[in-house]
Design goal:
Length: about 60
């Protein structure tokens, strides 16, 4: 399913940008143009970022 239908970007595309180092919606937009057209997907991108941060925190806690 598309996260950004304007640029045909899926959840996997967004996660790939996060894995490559993007840490905010602006960085994701700069990397793959998600959210730069109609802007309707910005909330979904933010939700994916929040989920990624939670997963990173869980991984850090279990590694300690």
């Amino acid at each position: 399913m598309y996260v950004c239908s304007c640029h045909a970007l899926t959840h996997n595309h967004i996660e790939a940008e996060i894995a490559a180092g993007a840490r905010c919606t602006r960085e994701i937009s700069a990397a793959c143009r998600a959210g730069t057209d109609c802007g309707g997907c910005v909330r979904n991108i933010s939700a994916i970022l929040r989920a990624s941060r939670r997963n990173e925190n869980i991984e850090l806690e279990t590694a300690v």
